[in-house]
Every structure is written in C-alpha cells, then in structure tokens.
Amino acid sequence: MLSEQSAATVRATLPAVGAAVGEITARFYDRLFAAHPELLRDLFNRGNQAAGTQRQALAGSIAAFATYLVEHPEDRPDAMLDRIAHKHASLGIAPEQYAVVHEHLFAAIAEILGDAVTPEVAAAWDEVYWLMANALIAIERRLYAQHENPGDTGGRRPWQVVERVDETPDVASFRLRPADGRPLPDFRPGQYVSVRVELPDGAHQTRQYSLVGAPGSPELRIAVKRVHGGTTPDGEVSNHLHARVREGSVLELSAPYGDLVLEATDVPLLLASAGIGVTPMIAMLEQLALTGHRAPVTVVHADRSPAEHALRADHEAYAAKLADAAVHFWYEHPEPGHPADRTGLVDLTGVPVSAGTRAYLCGPLPFMRAVRTQLIEKGVAPADIHYEVFGPDLWLARES
C-alpha cells in the first residue's frame, strides 16, 4: 500500500489538507468544468453541483481514504471503494478519465496550498491518489465484465415504458421492457440502474433509481420521486420523468449496479427505510417471500403520512407472505384509519431485534444515522449494518 516515506508525509500534512479539502474540491470542479464543459452538461449531476453536495462527497472520500491508509497501512477501505465503483460503473466512467481528474485536482491543490506543496508533499499525495484511482479502475473493470456489453458506456441500452402508475402525488413507478429485444440483465435485490435522459436544453443527465422487484420478472420496475428543490433547484431528471414519460416512451438505462444487496441468508433481518428509500426494500422483501425465508424479518419505515408512503401496499403484501415478519410504520402526520401506525420519528425502543440481526438501511442520512445508533445500542454489530445513500454519499464527508 502506501510507502513508508509517503505515509509519514501524508500523516504530517493530513490536517492541513483536510482543513482545505473543501476549498480544494471547489477549485477542482471549477477548473474541470472550465476545461471540459461537456462533463457538467452530460455526465455530472448539475443539481448536486449547484447544491455543493458533490464537492462535499469528494472531499470526504479523499480525506477518509488518506486517513485509512495511514491508520491501516496493510489494508484498504474496500467497502467505501466498492460503493464508489458501483456508482462510477453505472455512469460509464472510463479509466482515462482518472488522468483528467488528476490533472485538475492536483492543480487545485497547488493553487490552494501554494508553497506548502513541496515536491515531497506532491509525490506523497500523488501516491494516495493513484492508489485510490487504480483500485477503483480495477473494481470497475470487473463490474463491466459481469455484464453482456462491458465497456465505458456502463451497458446502457434502450428500454420501453410499458406501464406508468402514479403511486402518490410525487412518486410515479415505471415498468420497462428491453426495446432491443435482448434478455433482461441479471441483478440482485437492492441494486439500481442509471437512467439517462435528454433535457429540453439538450443536456444529457443521469440519475440512479433502485429496482423495485425481485429478479425473474419479465420487466424492470423503478419508482421516481419528484424532487422539489426548496432552497435549491427542482430535480431536473425526476421532474422530466414525471412530466414527459408515459407508456410507450423509451428510456436509456445502464446495467444494474449497487453494493447494497440482499445476501442469501437464514439469519434475522431488519429492513429500515424512509421516504423513497423504500424502493430497494420492496425488492428485498419480494425476494425473501419468493425464497421462503424463515428467520424473523423486521420491517421499519418512516414517512410524512400514509398518503405519501409510496408502495405501501407492496410493503405490506410481501411482508405478509413471510413466515415471521413484524411491520412498523411511523408517520409525522398520521391519518385516521391506520390505528397500527406510529406517530413521529422512528423509535426502536419497543421494537424487538433478534440476536444476530443483519440490517439494511435506505433513506435520508439523518434517518439512517439515528437508526444505526439505535441498532448498535440494541446489540447489532456495526459490521452487520449496511446502507445506501441516494445521491452523493455525505456519510464520509461528515465523519472525516
């Protein structure tokens, strides 16, 4: 891994780089998009760039990777790398793009830190970058090779919408079949696809949506929540899909990717979601029902109200097919006619959690942090708690 000389230099300079990494990543993206405007137009999420969340995620991943290297010199953070690689593969990131990133990232480091970037410091952080980049390139190469058309397109192909259902006022689900007549790709419950659309200004933007449903269906199904920006712009792709995509429309989808996947197991499970984070949990529940899972399954979900709980009927129906399932729904604004529901935020105090439980979490970051803390207090091992962040992974950004 990191050489001894570089490790000493990185350890000594990590506080200074960590303190400036947010400014460095901001300068990096300014430089990158000035030199390659097509990347902002057709690859990077313009909404995340406007909100600054992509900069935070990049800063967090760099700081976390460097910290891990100096604290665990004989190891590497594979869980973090796998999550990033799956996202990159779904976007079709190619190995040569890492050299472009390197050019502008290190120019930004030199501009922000100035004379502090001695040749020794530059060489040490260059080693950090290429250790991370080459690890990601290797993982992404393996991911591409798993699909029928490996390469830098992420396995994108045309899919026709065969059904659209407005699940709630802000969530629509779409059933899709291959428009090219080829078989459906293999996937695992919990994975997502990237959907690439052309927007009215001619830009091509891509977003990830979890697959709703277990493998084996003749169709793929996704559910899209319309993003209302509030203090930031409305979601470009989600609003485009809601406004323009109907039965008969053709969408461009990547092959399935994602590292939050349901493993074949007979241990107790807890599936916790909030809002549109319910989508991968529906796929997991259907798979558990199809395979006759016998161990206890605890289903936890939080939403604003029952009317805004997308796919609630699926949530309840698949759980009801399991041999031993307990369902717990929390709503900030409950409605009459749902006496079993709970009011407020998720509180697991009175929820039994079996010994040896493996947990899967998906939803807003504050929700997942709160649930993870409660699960650890109940004796669930941290290694058995797995999560998926929709959008840039800011978990690392807030921990670094």
Structure description:
This protein is α/β, with parallel strands linked by helices. 43% of the residues lie in helices and 19% in strands. It has 12 helices and 12 strands. The strands form 2 sheets. A 6-stranded antiparallel beta sheet has the order 4-3-6-1-2-5, sandwiched between helices. A 6-stranded parallel beta sheet has the order 10-9-8-7-11-12, with helices on both faces. Strand 1 and strand 2 form a beta hairpin. Helix 1 (4-35) runs antiparallel to helix 4 (53-71), helix 1 crosses helix 6 (97-113) and helix 9 (278-291) runs parallel beside helix 10 (312-320). The longest helix is centred in the first third of the chain and has 32 residues, at 4-35. The radius of gyration is 22 Å and the shape is globular. The model is unreliable at 396-400 (pLDDT under 50).
Short précis:
The protein has 400 residues and is of the alpha/beta class. It has helices at residues 4-35, 37-42, 46-51, 53-71, 78-91, 97-113, 119-145, 236-244, 278-291, 312-320, 365-377, 395-399, and strands at residues 157-168, 171-178, 192-198, 204-210, 220-225, 250-253, 269-274, 297-303, 325-331, 342-343, 358-362, 385-388.
